[in-house]
């Protein structure tokens, strides 16, 4: 399969009890659907804090609210058996591929042998007929450079909060306006540093709240931000709203 454009690894909405918040899943996805993103990875970095049952529920909601987008499931679990079971469960829900964050080629190949959909991996080359071999960008800090180097698609946590900025870089590259792509890259640099680096998931979720998406609090053991951190993010995202 060939992927193109911007893919959003969905940030998981939790309510004040720390449970999945289905109405906010719907809100975020329906709002993102209007931006022109190519598809979704369900879920993003918070996937490790979800049980298998919670992952399945998220996939069901994403499939329901984004029927016209390319859907990818983050299915990684410690064991090959459970990862394979989840991957094939996602396939039954209409997901087109599974995304694994692993640098273990034996693990990846074992899942790929048993999976009913292609496996996309990040950061490791695995020669297998069921492993997607194209280079996919996963860092918003170098997205313009990645596209210039030949990456056809990007999976970006930052796009949860500022999808239009990420799409602008993709569109500038697609129309060969490379200076415009680099200009956008420079404009988002501090915001990316804060939400994909310094403050991580908590920072990303606060930025989502600023821009009309639902971020909320992360699930424990992660905690929210200090007032000073919030102010930093507000300043960095000034001009990247909407």
Structure explained in plain terms:
- Strand 7, helix 5 and strand 8 (153-155) form a beta-alpha-beta unit.
- The protein is an alpha/beta fold.
- It has a domain at 5-74 and 135-188: TIM Barrel.
- It is built from 9 helices and 8 strands.
Per CATH, the class of the domain at 5-74 and 135-188 reads Alpha Beta
Write the H/E string, N to C: EHEHEHEHEEEHEHHHH
Distance between the termini: 31 Å
Largest sheet: 8 strands, parallel
Helix content: 40-55%
User: What's the number of extended β-strand segments?
Assistant: 8
Note the quaternary state here. single chain
Low-pLDDT residue intervals, each spanning 5 or more residues = none
Helix segment count?
9
Mean of all residue-level pLDDT scores? 94
Largest sheet, spatial ordering of strands = 6-5-4-3-2-1-8-7
CATH-scheme architecture of the domain at 5-74 and 135-188:
Alpha-Beta Barrel
Sheet/helix structural class:
alpha/beta
List keywords for this structure.
single chain; 242 residues; alpha/beta; TIM Barrel; 8-stranded parallel β-sheet
Give a quick summary of the entry.
The chain contains nine helices and eight strands.
Write the layout of secondary structure elements.
Elements: E1 5-9, H1 22-33, E2 39-42, H2 52-65, E3 70-74, H3 80-92, E4 97-100, H4 105-114, E5 119-121, E6 131-132, E7 136-137, H5 143-148, E8 153-155, H6 163-174, H7 178-198, H8 200-210, H9 227-236
Parallel strand pairs: 1-2, 1-8, 2-3, 3-4, 4-5, 5-6, 7-8
Helix pairs in contact: 1-2, 3-4, 6-7, 7-8, 8-9
């Amino acid at each position: 399969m060939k992927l193109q454009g911007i893919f959003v690894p969905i940030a998981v909405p939790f309510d004040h009890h720390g449970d999945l918040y289905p109405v906010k899943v719907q809100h975020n996805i329906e709002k993102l659907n209007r931006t022109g993103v190519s598809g979704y990875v369900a879920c993003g970095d918070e996937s490790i804090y979800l049980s298998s049952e919670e992952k399945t529920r998220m996939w069901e909601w994403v499939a329901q609210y984004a029927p016209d987008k390319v859907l990818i499931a983050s299915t990684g679990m410690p064991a090959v058996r459970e990862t394979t079971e989840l991957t094939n469960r996602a396939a039954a829900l209409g997901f087109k591929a599974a995304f694994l964050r692993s640098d273990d080629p034996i693990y990846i190949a074992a899942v790929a042998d048993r999976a009913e959909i292609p496996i996309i991996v990040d950061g490791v080359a695995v020669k297998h007929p069921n492993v997607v071999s194209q280079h996919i960008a996963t860092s918003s800090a170098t997205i313009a450079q990645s596209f210039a180097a030949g990456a056809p698609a990007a999976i970006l946590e930052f796009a949860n909060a500022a999808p239009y900025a990420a799409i602008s870089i993709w569109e500038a590259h697609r129309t060969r306006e490379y200076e415009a792509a680099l200009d956008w890259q420079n404009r988002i640099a501090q915001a990316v540093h804060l939400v994909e680096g310094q403050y991580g998931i908590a920072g990303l979720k606060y930025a989502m709240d600023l821009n009309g998406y639902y971020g909320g609090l992360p699930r424990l053991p992660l905690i929210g931000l200090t007032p000073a951190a919030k102010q930093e993010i507000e300043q960095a995202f000034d001009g990247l709203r909407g």
